[in-house]
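New to this. Comment on this protein:
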Amino acid sequence: MPKNKGKGGKNRKRGKNEADDEKRELVFKEDGQEYAQVLRMLGNGRCEAMCIDNVKRLCHIRGKMHKKVWIAAGDIILVGLRDYQDDKADIILKYMPDEARLLKAYGELPDNIRLNEGIANLDEEDDGGADDYIEFEDEDIDKI
């Protein structure tokens, strides 16, 4: 059997649980960057995100964040736009939920973005959900 020549296994690659992002400074967008909300994860380090400028882009998770920062649908991210490909972008930073609320309070994010939901709805307005409730009478149940 071959000898293991590495310095450890899977647990070493995971590293220590570094909680350095507990109190970090809020990062605002610069030129060439845009805020976005993740629509769905595609796998292979990629996701589909709707940017604030209403353009749907294919985003790539950079290597520094890969397997360290977990991104899910509905997360607010900061993407770096590409000069040569407008439909693709690179994920620079994932905002924590409290940071996303601060961005919305500062007016960086528009009011029609929903922060605390898994799915992203940028331009759909909620009509109260009155259509979802159906009331059955006793005679309707007896017919079934």
